[in-house]
Amino acid sequence: MRTRVAVLLSGSGTTFEHAARERAAGRLDVDFCAVVASKAGAGGLERARDHGVPAELVERRAFDDERAFNDALHAVLEPHRPDLVALMGFLSRLEIRGYAGRVMNVHPALIPSFCGKGFYGDRVHRAVLEAGVKLTGATVHFCDEEYDTGPIIVQQAVPVLEGDTLDALRARVQAAEREIYPRAIQLFAGGRLRVEGRRVRVLPGPAA
After folding, report:
1. Which CATH number is 50's domain given?
2. Do 35 and 7 touch, CB atoms closer than 8 A?
3. b/e per residue, 140-159, with b = 16+ CB within 10 A?
4. Active site amino acids
5. Which strands form 193-196's sheet, in the order they lie side by side?
6. pLDDT single digits (tens) 131-147
């Protein structure tokens, strides 16, 4: 049976779109069982429908507190029975609850740099440019109960070029995200990820 993946997002869903295309091309051996958005009008919902994936809305602003929002979110996830929950531009904090070791996120920097609460999207890229660092990148990690502190699965470095603009840097980092996120999901689906303390060990695949 293929790994069932539920996607949580808040925006346009371009990361989901790329993953869905990888699946259609036979490079990602999973089934997307649901896409859940935290914002009304999120483009990711329409992308989900285009790919025949159930699309659900749990609007963050409809709830007074984070706990009530998470209660509703988990109630929507439960009947879809996901093996993995993939955060793809999800801007709220997910309480892990029964999904320990089964929630992934992609972050637009090399964790532990430029991460934590408040560091998302263009805020990260602006901070990178202002700091004058020569390297940034993308990180896929397992989630815990804090922001961007879970064990790292895979990273890819992206050079910061002289005269870089926000748009140019964002585009290169997003390209890295699109490359490594499906790879991490495929490793999970193949049973090749083992968490050992703070480290994620990638087990060897079957011999060719």
Report:
1. 3.40.50.170
2. yes
3. bbbbeeebbbbbbbbbbebe
4. 107
5. 55-57, 30-37, 3-9, 84-87, 103-107, 135-142, 152-159, 199-202, 193-196
6. 999 999 999 999 999 99
